[in-house]
Design a protein that fits this description.
Layout: H1 2-25, E1 28-35, H2 36-40, H3 42-53, E2 57-64, H4 66-74, E3 80-85, E4 98-113, E5 133-137, H5 143-153, E6 161-166, H6 170-178, E7 184-187, H7 192-197, E8 200-202, E9 210-219
Parallel strand pairs: 1-2, 1-3, 5-6
Antiparallel strand pairs: 3-9, 4-7, 4-8, 4-9
Length: 221
C-alpha cells in the first residue's frame, strides 16, 4: 500500500502544479459539445464574442450528433452543450439537473439544387402520387428527422415523397442535394451563400419550414 500511496501523492502534487500553471497563465479552458450544424455556424461567432470578453480562452469543441452530445454532458466530459430544440420533439435531457439559455433561432427549410441557367429547383414539394419527389432525409431517430416526420404527418401538409438516402448530418445531405439526388430540409444559416449565389433554392414555401431554438445547456451546479 505504501508504494501505491506514493504514486497517488505524486499524482496529487503534479495535479496541483498543473492547476497553478493554468491559473498563472490567465487562460480559461471551456469544453463544449455541439451538434454538427451549430459547430459550423453559430459556434464560430460565439467563440469570437467569448474572446472579446476574456483575456484568453482555450475552447475544446466537440462536434457530434445530439445523442452523443447529451451523453458527454451527462458524463461530465463537457462544461456546456449547444443543441437545437423544437416544441414538437422532446429532448433526452433531465431538466431537474440541467439549465439552458436560448441563444438563437434556426429554421429548417426545404431546398434543392437549381436547374442549369435558371432559378428553378430540380425537385419541389408537394409532388404527386404518380411522380413522388426524391427525398434526401435525416435518420428517423435524429432530432431533425423527428421534427420533419411530425411536419409531414400533420393535416394540411400532404405530400408524396420517395425516400432515397438518409444520414444524420446536414452537411452530408447538403452534398447529396448539390449532386441533384433529391431535395432536403437544411438549416438556413448553413446555406445562405448557396441561396444567394443561386446554387440552391427553395423546394417549398414557408409552410414547410420547421423552426428551432438554439440552446446552451449547463449543469445546475
Amino acid at each position: 500500500f505504501v508504494t501505491e500511496a506514493e504514486i497517488i501523492l505524486r499524482r496529487l502534487y503534479n495535479a496541483r502544479e498543473t492547476i497553478r500553471a493554468l491559473g498563472s497563465s490567465g487562460e480559461s479552458e471551456i469544453t463544449v459539445a455541439a451538434q454538427n450544424s451549430i459547430a459550423q455556424t453559430l459556434c464560430l461567432n460565439w467563440m469570437k464574442r467569448l474572446e472579446s470578453r476574456l483575456d484568453s480562452v482555450y475552447v475544446r469543441l466537440i462536434s457530434e450528433k445530439l445523442s452523443d452530445c447529451v451523453e458527454l454532458l451527462k458524463q461530465g466530459h463537457v462544461d456546456y452543450m449547444f443543441c437545437y430544440a423544437n416544441q414538437q420533439v422532446s429532448l433526452p435531457i433531465d431538466e431537474t439537473k440541467y439549465s439552458y439559455t436560448t441563444i438563437g433561432k434556426e429554421t429548417l427549410i426545404p431546398v434543392a439544387a437549381t436547374l442549369k441557367h435558371s432559378r428553378t429547383p430540380a425537385f419541389s414539394l408537394p409532388g404527386c402520387l404518380e411522380d413522388p419527389v426524391p427525398y434526401v432525409a435525416y435518420t428517423h431517430e435524429s432530432l431533425f428527422g423527428k421534427a420533419i416526420d411530425e411536419l409531414i404527418q400533420r393535416k394540411g401538409h400532404s405530400c408524396y415523397l420517395s425516400r432515397r438516402y438518409e444520414n444524420p448530418f446536414s452537411h452530408t445531405l447538403k452534398s447529396m442535394i448539390t449532386e441533384q439526388l433529391g431535395f432536403a430540409w437544411l438549416p438556413k444559416s448553413s446555406i445562405l451563400n448557396e441561396l444567394r449565389e443561386g446554387k440552391l433554392c427553395r423546394a417549398g414555401d414557408e409552410r414547410w419550414d420547421v423552426d428551432f431554438d438554439i440552446r446552451l445547456y449547463y449543469h445546475h451546479s
